[in-house]
Amino acid sequence: MADRHEHKILLINFRSDEAAQVSKAGFNVEIGYFGKPLNEFLIPYYTPHPFHDYDVYVYNSAVPDVSISSPKRNNLDLSDLLAAGPLMDILKPPHIRVAFVGKGQAKNLILGGVPIVKLIAANENVSSFLISKQETFSIPVLHDAIANLRTQIVSPVGQYVDWKAEPWPIQQFPVITNRRGDIVASYGVFASGDTARPFYVALPQLKNNPTGLIEILRALAKAAPDVLPDVRDQTWLDSSEFALPEEVRIQAQITTKIQEAQAFATDKKKQIEQVRKEWNFIKKILVATEDPALPPGERLSAT
Fold this sequence. Notes:
This protein is an alpha/beta fold. It is 27% helix and 24% strand. The protein has six helices and 13 strands.
């Protein structure tokens, strides 16, 4: 495996400002590029280092509108196992592959480093999405991170992902689907004993891909700490112990207002109950059923 002291992440088809956003979140990233395929096997590309030098490989099927500067671009021959092998072999580095699908005409995720995943053209104008339940060998922190991106999906979705059952230990899980069950987002794991190790995440295009990627990388750092060993969980910085005085003051104001609103609502609910008790006899009259044995002159309906 690569040097464990500092992880390396390759971002394919991300702009420099997007890469800077991911870097600012604490991730060591480099930018690469895949162009429009020249034929079935040949595609222009650039990467600062060979694919197998990276711990995490991130592919965006949407090529940026702006040009990506690179010192040299080559043509990648997908039939060349020496050059393209790391994208074909899910058992070798990069150990985790993340792909934003939905653009282009590709039939599988070879360029995303997961050739076992197929891509299917999506129905037009699909905008209703459901969250799938977790199953045995699901990874809760990753499953939830993907599910939380549902509101960030760009509509219409361009492609669904699909796969056939793979031999053990490969397990794949849908996370976001449409109402028909077509898969919009998923992930795969290598299952072993009672544990599971993620090896890919497939996502649709998001309103902000870098922001979504940051959340996925944070989840992956928890689910596979050996792949991203130097990524620190910095949520402790947001704890009250490290809050600035102004933060504490504002939070106290918020808490006070919430308590006042809750007290107001409780008081008004009590008033509603009291009114209902006082005027309940009117409802009883409105729904009462008269005894048909009463003489007509003694019935309420006769007055």
